[in-house]
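Fill-in record for DNA-binding transcriptional regulator, AcrR family.
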Amino acid sequence: MGKDIKIAHSRKFAELRKFCTVGVVISEIGLRDRKKAATRAALSGAAARLARALGIECVTADAIASEAGVSTRTFHNYFSSKEEAVLAHFEQSVHDWVDLLRARPEDEPIWDSLEHVVVQIVTAPGKPLEETAVMMDLVESSPALLAKKLEVHLRVTRLIGEVIAERTGTNIDTDLYPNLLHMAVGSACKASIDLWRSGKTGASGPEELVRDAMRQLRQGIPQP
């Protein structure tokens, strides 16, 4: 009987050791992924800062790597070009939209969810609206960045449409609704930001314009 107890204890210890080993491996993988994400974000941020300050034509991979405090080889491990690095912020913004939309209550009307997300995007304290707008201008003024943005756009904006389709019981591949809705809301957001930056509106802030844009969309954009 004593032998059976020893065997049972031995098995339990082996299982515990295996569990702890798995936990350590998962923890190490998580830490590694966080470090990679931080390095990617640092490189993208450096690329955006340099592009805003110097113009994309004057930016090099070496300069971006130096600004981020890493080697040029590290830069090329994460990005194939300076344009891709600059536009990484755009791709991340799309993922932010997706995460915010997924976080909304499942039974919330889709228009309410989208308005909440758009308002949160334009009022986020950690992402100054003016900085975002400057990046938009930079992309629009550079043929190389614009061409690269189209590639990224085709790859990632579908993600928003997929979430809308999930929440509305539609199909992004066969139904117009999710595709039309996410394009309309994105355009409304850009129009609001452009009008706010023009300084010609009496709105108190971009949030007021975004809410007005969403109201008009809900009403079918009635003629004034």
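KEY FINDING: Residues 2-54 form the longest helix (53 residues).
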